[in-house]
Write a structure and sequence with these properties.
CATH superfamily: CheA-289, Domain 4
Number of domains: 1
Structural class: mainly beta
CATH architecture: Beta Barrel
Strand order of the largest sheet: 8-1-2-11-10-9
Number of strands: 11
Distance between the termini: 24 Å
Length: 164
C-alpha cells in the first residue's frame, strides 16, 4: 500500500502557530470513526502523506504493515478497522506517527488533525465502545467530546494481538 502525495509538515507547527501563547492545555485532535481523540501538543509526532506501507503476512486486517522511518521500522494500524467502524471517504489519506524510536506507532487518518483548546475536563469517562474501555486517560468537552487515549497501553495491546 502506498500513500499518495508529498511529506506533510513534520512538526505540525503550522497548527500550533495559530494558537495564542496564553492558551493552556493545547491538544491536537483527530477523528477515528465517530470518536474524537486528542493528544498533547508536546507529543513527538509526524504527518506523512507519501510512504510505502509494507504488508506483514498473517496479521489482522487492521494491522496494515510496517514503514521505514529514517531507518527504523514503525507499525501501521487502521484503528477504524480495529473498532469495526464503517469506512469513511478518504479526504487526505495521512499517516500520523506518534512517538519516537522503538515507541513510534503510525495509524491512518482521513483528515488533518486540528488544534483543540479551552477544554473542560469531565469527571467521568463515557462508555462508548468496549474495545476502547480501559485505554482512556481523560474525557474533555469543547464543542465536541474529546477522549485522551493512553497511547502506550493501547498500542502495546494492539502489538500483542498481532503477535498472537
Amino acid at each position: 500500500m502506498e500513500l499518495e502525495g508529498s511529506l506533510a509538515d513534520l512538526s505540525l507547527a503550522n497548527l500550533l502557530s495559530k494558537a495564542n501563547a496564553d492558551d493552556k492545555d493545547l491538544r491536537y485532535g483527530f477523528q477515528i470513526g465517530n470518536i474524537n481523540l486528542i493528544y498533547d501538543v508536546n507529543t513527538a509526532c509526524e504527518l506523512l502523506k507519501s510512504t510505502t506501507i509494507h504488508a506483514v503476512p498473517n496479521t489482522p486486517k487492521w494491522m496494515l504493515g510496517l514503514i521505514n522511518l529514517r531507518g527504523g521500522l514503525v507499525p501501521v494500524f487502521d484503528i477504524e478497522k480495529y473498532f469495526d467502524f464503517e469506512p469513511r471517504e478518504d479526504k487526505h489519506q495521512l499517516l500520523l506517527v506518534l512517538g519516537k524510536g522503538e515507541k513510534a506507532v503510525a495509524f491512518l487518518l482521513k483528515e488533518y488533525p486540528e488544534l483543540v483548546r479551552n477544554l473542560t475536563h469531565l469527571d467521568t469517562i463515557p462508555k462508548l465502545i468496549p474495545k476502547i474501555d480501559g485505554y482512556i486517560l481523560g474525557a474533555y468537552k469543547e464543542k465536541k467530546l474529546w477522549l485522551e487515549l493512553d497511547k502506550e497501553k493501547f498500542f502495546s495491546t494492539l502489538g500483542e494481538k498481532v503477535c498472537i
